Amino acid sequence: MSIFTGNHRQAWAEAFIAGIPYAVASGMTLVETGPGHASLLLPARSTWTGDAERQLIHPGCLSVLADTACGVAVGCAMDELEPFATLDLRMDYLRPPVADTDLVCRAECHRLSRSVAFVRGELMQPGQSEPVATVYATFMRATAASRRKDLPASDTSAQPSPAPASARPTPAQAASSLMSPASIEPSQVFVSRAADVPETLAVPPGRSPYVDFLNVHQQPQIDAGPVFRMPYKPELIGNPVLPALHGGILAGFGETAMILHLLATNPQLAGIPRSVDFAIAYMRSAKPIDTFAQSTTVRQGNRVALVMVSLWQDDPSRGHFLMPREDA
Asked: Is the pLDDT of residue 24 over 60?
């Protein structure tokens, strides 16, 4: 049965946006739809400013808009609606997005295979003839509509932190094992911490309004870099059925953690580093609980740094091992 005939596609897209708590809270609106494509508008807000000094929008705002628009494009490409979820998302930032200015993302599902949907798109700002960013994303079709295991939204007691440096891969090992500069890989985390870990706000209030919106907190420096925590709040939900955090919010938090990592490990920097590109691979949906992140600088030159970030939520499995002795 075909569901997208006449105005059905537009009606579905509007209902899809209206059902995403983050999209509603951020004021996203549908601009237009067609077979396999869609355009979404993110209205200007001072909250979206990432660098108050240079008046630039935080790149995480572009990621969350792009992820949403790409998802709508996938739905508009289907003849019969089915669940789908983001597999990976890549952003290329072509020029700085100006703060307090609308953003529009036009996404096109250019290939819809039996299992995977492939999407590309551009992000524009009114008054500019060239895009500020491009996006490429893939989505898995026919995903599960419920969790096999879930935690209540109020359970935020688990506060894991990374293993000591000796238990983590070196930057060279990390670089050789990555398919993209950023990934969500909870298995890289081994040690848990109590809920009373001392924290401070990641940045002074007002320096980065978008970081203030995410309410990012910073734990003390641990080995290669600090641990950051994004507290859960209902407006961060992207899938109210599971429920799950919006994939674009995870991307935005990951980008934030990498920028803050560079600032923490390079105290001599005169300003906030600006993103060139960002890619994230989603291993599983994120539950409605606190999310943690820690970054590693894989390579740093005079002008460009390559950073890896790991995001996690639950306290992962861990174990102690008795190492063989030479005299045994």
From this structure: yes
Contacts of residue 99, defined as CB under 8 A and 6 or more positions apart, other chains included, come to 44, 46, 48, 49, 50, 51, 55, 56, 57
Mean pLDDT of 151-166: 40
The pair phi, psi for residue 139, each rounded to 5°, is: -130, 140
Cα gap 39→126, rounded to integer Å: 14
Cα 4 off chain centre by = 30
Instruction: Tell me the whole-structure pTM to 2 decimals.
Output: 0.80
84-93: strand order across its sheet: 29-34, 37-42, 103-112, 116-124, 133-141, 84-93, 277-281
Distance between CA atoms of residues 60 and 46, nearest Å = 14
Residue 194 CA to residue 149 CA, distance in Å, equals: 23
Torsion angles phi and psi, residue 115, rounded to 5: -115, -25
Sorted by sequence, the CB contacts under 8 Å of residue 284 that are 6+ apart come out as 184
Q: Which amino acid is at 251?
A: A
Task: Give the whole-angstrom CA distance, residue 327 versus residue 265.
Answer: 41
Residue 235: what pLDDT? 96
Single-letter amino acid, residue 46:
S
Residue 44's pLDDT is: 98
Closest by CA position to 30, among listed 64, 62, 69, 61: 69
**Residue found under tokens 């240079």:** 54
279-296 pLDDT, tens digit each: 999 999 999 999 999 999
Looking at the chain, list the stretches that DSSP marks H as alpha helix, in order from N- to C-terminal side: 8-18, 21-26, 59-77, 171-177, 209-214, 247-265
Residue 320, pLDDT above cutoff 70: no
Mean pLDDT of 46-65: 96
d(CA 40, CA 32): 7
Q: Which residues contact 84 (CB under 8 A, 6 or more apart)?
A: 71, 74, 75, 117, 139, 140, 141, 142, 143
Tell me the C-alpha distance between 292 and 260, whole Å.
13
